[in-house]
Predict the structure.
Amino acid sequence: MTDPVRDEWYPVALVSQLHHGARDTLLLGEPIRVTLQDDQPLVTASNRVLPSQARYGHVWTCPGVPARPLFDIPEADQPGRRLVDVGLVRVKCSPLRAVENFLDIAHFPFVHTDILGAEPHTEVGRYDVAIRDEVDEVWATKVQFYQPQAAKSAAGGITTEYMYRVPAPTVSVLYKTCPPRPGEWDVITLFVQPLTETLCEVWPWMALFDDTTPLTDLIHFQQTIFLQDRSILENQQPSLLPLDPGLEIPTRADLTSIAYRRWLKRRGYTYGAQLVAA
């Protein structure tokens, strides 16, 4: 019998860090150990060897039987891109809340003031959202927002175009305007490791066209953004993500969140979710 939660792929370590030793951590409340053996990832739990693979600078594992291959990010193999491992941030929130927050555009001017947004540019314009059945993913397209500093490489404020993609319940991929190379997309991802239903570790990762910004500055910029989000995430109520649309009142700006919740419910993915009113 399939398990929609245990049969997903999850990030559990940076490959580069494993060269310095094993990583003991949690996944879905269960202790696991992540190591390298002959330069290949090895993940064990209660004397079981779990399916694992290295991709996008991270080790991925599945505590059950993989329901599908690990999602593809073609830009990871595109020549000329800088692939940036940002590290991790531990957050006391539902892993699904962390993904949903990454999909939220409306908070930019208020949480990421003078970086990703600023007053009076607070309106979220119309955009398109769809659950693409052929790939079983959530996509939001034609998203535009004015940003004072859209990326570390940006010289000034621009109207940034976005696309959001949710290829797995605890993963979000953002495609955004690339200031140094018009016509291309910068790729910024959020890989979320569910430690428990109310505690997660977030692994941002980037595939950028930026040959000039020092690596430390790229990492610091992205960590600054997420650390601004952490206090919001850790104070959200209810702590679990409500899947019933009647539990929270959405607005037009929440179309991606609505689709994400509907998609989770359709897939039967309930770890970190609230199904009925408390």
